[in-house]
């Protein structure tokens, strides 16, 4: 497909986004280590179905600017990027779908600016209250004293920045497989503190995989080879700051309609969201209209199970359209 690439100065940074189709606007927000291209199979399907699809490179990743300080990745900056994108495109309100850090970005937006959000569609990471007693990086630091933990490895520069930038292909090859339904992130916990993430992950099978071609992998590798990983890592390093900014809204509910799509072997649902993550999400988004789970897939669900994800997204969007 010939993608329609655009660049604009938004919220003080140069942002890159891809836009396809016409109709009700749908903004797709990726996580780490992803880029807009993580959604390329959804962009085409949704645009062909009659939606105006916008997929930005989120702050710090892809071809969007990567400010150097973790404080540049706080809630206000990230929601400001999404609001600025709407303003730039002359869109009053849009449906927002997000996976991984992209999911938390759209939940923050819905809680702070509900008038700009028609609905939220969370993938893999449901909205959840935060531990009011302990900042997240402190909690993860304690966990990382027992065994390898990727968040603890990412926390303090420059080790992760340098090691990942030195081997972008090896890191992405390993992490995409480890986070998929065929991998097992929790095997990384068998390694001691201080292990590098690349060394903690198992060797993946050679490409192509059933869900990812060598050409697709090379696109991710080329983008991260150019940009480096510091911008994405700053989303982790700003977790305590975001925790502080979210505290005043703890217990606040959003009236924005919500939908959730998860997968059977998602690492975050299995290990980081508690025993009943859907109940926690419903406490924040009481108008949670549908929950769908895809068997067999992992955290890379939009690539691992593209046809199923596309069908479910179109089902959710049809329901939103009927509002």
Separation of the first and last Cα atoms: 32 Å
| Number of structural domains | 1
Binned strand content: 15-25%
Q: Which regions have little confidence, pLDDT < 50, spanning 5+ residues? A: none
Named CATH architecture: 3-Layer(aba) Sandwich
CATH topological fold name: Rossmann fold
Summarize the structure.
This is Alpha/beta hydrolase. With 323 residues, this protein is α/β, with parallel strands linked by helices.
If you had to describe this structure to a student in words, what would you say it looks like?
- By secondary structure, the protein is an alpha/beta fold.
- It has helices at 40-48, 75-88, 101-112, 136-144, 150-155, 159-166, 168-178, 197-200, 214-227, 230-237, 239-246, 267-271, 277-284, 301-304, 306-321; strands at 5-10, 13-20, 24-29, 51-56, 94-99, 117-123, 258-263, 288-294.
- Strands 1-2-4-3-5-6-7-8 form an eight-stranded mixed β-sheet, sandwiched between helices.
- Strand 5 (94-99), helix 3 and strand 6 form a beta-alpha-beta unit.
Itemize the secondary structure elements and their pairings.
Blueprint: E1 5-10, E2 13-20, E3 24-29, H1 40-48, E4 51-56, H2 75-88, E5 94-99, H3 101-112, E6 117-123, H4 136-144, H5 150-155, H6 159-166, H7 168-178, H8 197-200, H9 214-227, H10 230-237, H11 239-246, E7 258-263, H12 267-271, H13 277-284, E8 288-294, H14 301-304, H15 306-321
Helix pairs in contact: 1-15, 2-3, 7-9
Summarize this structure as a short list of keywords or feature phrases.
15 helices, alpha/beta, Rossmann fold, eight-stranded mixed beta sheet, 323 residues, 42% helix
């Amino acid at each position: 497909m010939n993608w329609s690439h655009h660049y604009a100065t938004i919220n003080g940074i140069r942002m890159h986004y891809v836009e396809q189709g016409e109709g009700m606007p749908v903004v797709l927000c990726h996580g780490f280590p992803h880029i807009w291209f993580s959604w390329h199979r959804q962009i085409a399907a949704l645009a062909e179905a009659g939606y105006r699809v916008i997929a930005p490179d989120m702050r710090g990743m892809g071809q969007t600017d990567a400010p150097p300080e973790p404080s540049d990745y706080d809630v206000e900056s990230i929601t400001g990027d999404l609001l600025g994108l709407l303003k730039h495109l002359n869109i009053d309100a849009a449906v927002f779908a997000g996976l991984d850090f992209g999911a938390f970005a759209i939940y923050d937006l819905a809680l702070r600016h509900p008038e700009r959000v028609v609905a939220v569609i969370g993938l893999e990471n449901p909205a959840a209250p935060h531990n009011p007693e302990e900042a997240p990086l402190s909690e993860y630091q304690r966990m990382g004293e027992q065994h390898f933990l990727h968040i603890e490895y990412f926390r303090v520069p420059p080790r992760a920045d340098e090691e990942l930038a030195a081997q972008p292909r090896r890191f992405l090859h390993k992490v995409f497989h480890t986070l998929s339904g065929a991998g097992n992130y929790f095997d990384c916990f068998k390694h001691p503190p201080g292990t590098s993430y690349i060394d903690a992950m198992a060797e993946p099978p050679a490409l192509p995989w059933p869900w990812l071609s060598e050409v697709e992998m090379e696109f991710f590798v080329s983008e991260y080879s150019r940009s480096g990983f510091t911008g994405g890592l700053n989303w982790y390093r700003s977790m305590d700051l975001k925790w502080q900014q979210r505290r005043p809204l703890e217990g606040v509910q959003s009236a924005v309609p919500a939908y959730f799509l998860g997968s059977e072997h998602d690492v975050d649902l299995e290990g980081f969201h508690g025993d009943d993550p859907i109940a926690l999400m419903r406490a924040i988004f009481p108008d949670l209209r549908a929950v769908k789970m895809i068997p067999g897939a992992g955290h890379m669900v939009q690539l691992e199970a593209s046809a199923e994800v596309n069908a479910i997204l179109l089902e959710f969007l049809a329901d939103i359209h009927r509002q």
